[in-house]
Write a structure and sequence with these properties.
outer membrane lipoprotein receptor (LolB), chain A, 21 strands, elongated, 14-stranded antiparallel β-sheet, mainly beta, 3-stranded antiparallel β-sheet, 11% helix
Length: 335
């Protein structure tokens, strides 16, 4: 199992070092980043495609990234074996295909603001401040692990504020940080290497509210394309792993509201019936006791949460079937 590097969430002043003066011009700072990491090569590069290995929620696997450098659309696919996920995001919308293979549109106000900021970062909008509007605020400079870093808070039009950490000596972005409703979302960039005229990060680490949410991506190869492929950023197709056996568009299943939440009875791999809370915003979750009773082998280690701050530990297991029995009661629709 790979060991994730220990990453400091807060900068500190190294012994014997003093912080450099605050950046006088954010535009000049990012102009230096652009010149050092590709210069005019950024004008002809339209899409980045990356493949590598990933590690998240206690599971190793493969990762695939596509970035439209003009619009900022991104496609991220993580195949961790038993757990697979795909996220397609642009300034206008975000689609997520989760581990159940269900496809969901993330359209809450904060999700839309995040999508606009993520698209701005993906297309390197700070390289074109005259044509890609955003507000800039230079924050106090720091020295972290003996390295001087400059911080700029950027707020794209209609997006979240994001703090961008730049190494002015190496002229590269080393970190971005956004405040989500319940936690900080931090992305670390490192192991920069020259590829097709661009200097690109070969190590990308995402951290959330808990260590279990850390995702490490090690890029093995980039392709720099002169034209973006729209198909790389298409909405994930709906899964074909569910159906109503009669072929109807909807049916009826029994519910029990005695517990304060609608409960349906279901069969897992033919075993049951087992009571499930029907939660339209929930996940396919079994208790540890139920998983043991069914003889399921759990792998990995992550966390699950909802709209509040609370989370629970989770692992992953794959089942062959989940079936509910029909009866004339509450309506259950497939769409």
């Amino acid at each position: 199992m790979p060991v994730l590097p220990l990453l400091a969430a807060a900068a500190f002043i190294g012994a014997g070092a003093s912080p450099p003066p605050a950046c006088a011009s954010a535009r000049a700072l990012f102009a230096g980043v652009r010149a050092h990491t590709g210069g005019k090569a950024w004008d002809t590069a339209k899409e980045l495609v990356a493949d590598g290995t990933g590690y998240g929620e206690g599971l190793p696997g493969r990762t695939h990234l596509a970035i439209d450098l003009t619009s900022g659309a991104t496609a991220t696919t993580d195949d961790l074996g038993i757990a697979q996920q795909r996220i397609i995001s642009s300034a206008g919308e975000t689609w997520k295909q989760d581990v159940t293979q269900g496809v969901h549109r993330l359209d809450a106000p904060d999700a839309r603001a995040k999508a606009r900021t993520d698209a701005y970062l993906a297309r390197r909008g700070y390289f074109r401040p005259a044509t890609d509007p955003a507000s800039f605020a230079c924050l106090g400079d720091v020295v972290e692990d003996g390295r001087a870093l400059r911080r700029v808070r950027i707020t794209p039009r209609g997006g979240r504020a994001v703090t961008v950490w730049v190494d002015p000596a190496a002229h590269v972005v080393v970190r971005t940080q956004q405040q989500a409703p319940t936690h900080l979302e931090t992305v670390h960039y490192g192991a920069y290497r020259a590829t097709a005229g661009l200097l690109l990060p070969y190590e990308i680490i995402e951290t959330g509210s808990a260590p279990e949410e850390t995702v490490l991506r090690s890029i093995h190869a980039y392709r720099v394309l002169a034209a973006a492929n729209p198909g790389d950023f298409a909405r994930p197709p709906d899964s074909a792993n569910q159906r109503i056996t009669t072929g109807a568009a909807f049916t009826q299943v029994p519910t029990d509201d005695g517990s304060g939440a609608p409960v349906v009875e279901a069969y897992v791999d033919g075993h049951g019936p087992l009571p499930f809370i029907l939660d339209t915003g929930g996940h396919a979750i079994l208790t540890a006791g139920a998983a043991k009773q069914l003889g399921l082998l759990a792998k990995g280690g992550g966390v699950s949460g909802g709209a509040g701050e609370g989370t629970i530990s989770e692992q992953f297991a794959r089942v062959r079937s989940l079936r509910t029995a029909m009866r004339r009661s509450a309506i259950f629709r497939c769409s």
